[in-house]
Amino acid sequence: MTVIPAHPAPLVSRRQLGAALRQHRADADLSLKEVADRLLCSPSKISRIESAQRNISARDVRDLMAIYRITDPDVQARLTRLAEQSREALWWAPYNLDPAYARLIGLEGSATAIYEYQLGVVPGLLQTLEYTASIVSAWTDDPDAVRQASEVRQKRQESIGRDTELAFVIDESVFHRSLGETTMHGQIRRLIELSESPRITFQVLPFSAGTHQGVVSGFEILRFADPAAADVVAGMSDVVYLEGVVRPSYLDQADEVEGYLRSFTSLQTKALDRQDTLSFLKARLQH
């Protein structure tokens, strides 16, 4: 079982630290070039630190706090702690994952809520090992690659925080896809088991719902603690993850995220409720 960290995952800590340093630079009324000149580096380095595209050394953190004249001991301690956490080892590092996928894992591990809609497959956070292997085999016939992908997905599920709110809507078409009776029945039994958990909301969107806002693509919304109620350094914006055929993408503009939240709420309204979803799943076991 993967150990659940008591603090945000390293990638999230890096993102929080970058956002905090950007705000402190703005408060100090300094440009990227001005800071870079004082730190004896390129402006791109400061920009990449602020956008969480690169890690930061303890020395750079100390130097930036001096440049920004951050003297509050509590703020200094928080920034230093985030820097330390951002450099901690990642459990997925040995797998050499695509950076975009690694980012998703890091964000999921620190989200306070995850809302996901899928119209083609069962969401990764709910998949059995056998189901994952069947899906991954569409991309590769390398048994080692399939095994690794299944293993990573299993650990990804285990790394979700125990208090994270989870809500899923799955299109009915997912359950009509032929993956082998044993594989699909095993997956359905897993979903029935998970649907009984009080922290998981799981719904099936039936064909009878007609046209809806999810006919274009699936998506995953990752929500974080309200910055107004959290540590000023720890506030993070919500993110939408879109898994493309070639490469995935992320949306973090407030209006974009809000649009997807509205769509997800609409899909939940059209989907079967908990009891009807459970009845649907049990009926599919008879096929």
UniProtKB/TrEMBL annotation:
Xref: Pfam families: DUF5753, HTH_31
Highest taxon in the source lineage: Bacteria
InterPro entries reported for this sequence: Cro/C1-type_HTH, DUF5753, Lambda_DNA-bd_dom_sf
GO molecular function, one term: DNA binding
SMART domains xref list: HTH_XRE (SM00530)
Residue ranges constituting the HTH cro/C1-type domain according to the UniProt record: 21-75
Name of the featured protein: HTH cro/C1-type domain-containing protein
Species lineage: Bacteria, Bacillati, Actinomycetota, Actinomycetes, Micromonosporales
